[in-house]
Design goal:
The complex is a heterodimer of chains A (255) and B (188). Chain A has 255 residues and is an alpha+beta fold. Chain A has 6 helices and 10 strands. Helix content of chain A is 22%, strand content 15%. The chains are: A alpha+beta (255), B alpha/beta (188). The structure holds iron/sulfur cluster (SF4) (3 copies) and FE2/S2 (inorganic) cluster (FES).
Chain lengths: 255, 188
Amino acid sequence: MKRRFNIVVDGKSVTVGDGQTIMDACDDAGVYIPRLCDVEGLVPQGSCRVCTVKANGHTVAACTQPAEAGMQVENDTLEIKNYRRDLVRMLFHEGNHLCPICEASGRCELQAMAYRLGISQATKYPYLQPVRPVDASHPDIALDNNRCILCGRCIRASRDVDGKNVFEYVGRGIHKRIGVNAENLAATDASIDDYAMSLEVCPVGCIIRKREGYFAPVGERQFDRRPIGTEITSPRGRRRSRPRRAQAQETGDGE
Amino acid sequence: MSRRKKRVATVSLAGCFGCHMSLLDMDERILDLLEDVEFDRSPLTDFKQFTRRCDIGLVEGGCCNEENVHTLQEFRNHCDVLVAVGQCAIMGGLPVMRNAIMHSDDPLRECLDEAYASSPRVYNPSNQIPNDPALPLLLDKVYTCVDVVKIDYQIPGCPPSGDVLYAALSALIHDRPPELDHASIRYD
Ligand code: SF4
Ligand code: SF4
Ligand code: SF4
Ligand code: FES
């Protein structure tokens, strides 16, 4: 059964296909909704809340909220932008983000999001400067938890695409961390060829592919010339479907 | 009558001087700027003290020792508008690595040991750690500028490019906030 209807996003009519979330429909229409924990090819998890929009006056996560006929969505408004700025700022303050020494700088989605949201002035939050471990045990991969934003993309990639369950959340609240399913990464069955270890999965510089650092010179890195989101808003790079996500949804919901 | 020139002071605290070098990357635009600006206390003039109150203070680097804290407080007391320039001033930058990344109960001790005693590349048979009274006391950790004084604006970057500094300074000397468009914001 195929149904199509429309929603209104910032005054613009957007067509929705069957079963689409607000974000799916906006992506197809070339309307960018900022996001960090959601990425093409993985089931949405709705945890970072950077994709917050107002739907019929209520704040919802666009990546998980199914679109409904006639929905009025606010996306690019000052109020929403301020929510998103605060969320992204808190991520910077919660971990140790030393961009000048980070291998992911210039291709990091967190950093690019901060640029896109125009974050340049001081915040009211303190830097927590937590002490977090680095796991460099694996011959080809290192994990620098100082930069992890707990988006869970590695968990879903390993579980749903690689069928391995290398990563899982451990702990609760402020102590929540990404753990691996053995004493350290070297003791797991993680491989550099896993989808979870690919550059598309970890949005920041936590999962590090050894001996590949700084492969793009400054000026030619992913977000040096085009801000994050251009892949959705520029017609050439626009995605049309999300085949891998659909596949993951069929096989990955066994919990 | 022409406007009074804005008085600008600059200082490098726990920084590498890269942000000051970047000021020079304004190239000949620095001459335009000098039509509206005179430098007071700054490594550019080599004045070690304020000669009078300044309109704008530019601070590179955070605070890693006692002297940094005193200098930063003096800047706050003598400048109408105080600006944190570069990641070191804003969030601690490279020196702040010693706060959390050392995984030690006593990170300062471990940092000094690594620098002067235990590293295989150090030759220091008496294991001496510099402690001359003339040296400023190191702080327990590195503090950002906002940890110590009120900061009015930030110019991010490591260092901010000459273009960004020029744009920001031009705004400040005309009493406007240094607003950066998103293409000019860089944290590296
Ligand atoms: S992960 Fe991103 S935000 Fe964090 S230090 Fe690296 S480049 Fe900066
Ligand atoms: S390691 Fe990377 S992908 Fe995994 S939760 Fe942390 S930031 Fe996300
Ligand atoms: S921000 Fe970068 S360039 Fe400026 S003082 Fe710090 S390390 Fe040097
Ligand atoms: S992208 Fe929707 S909650 Fe993270």
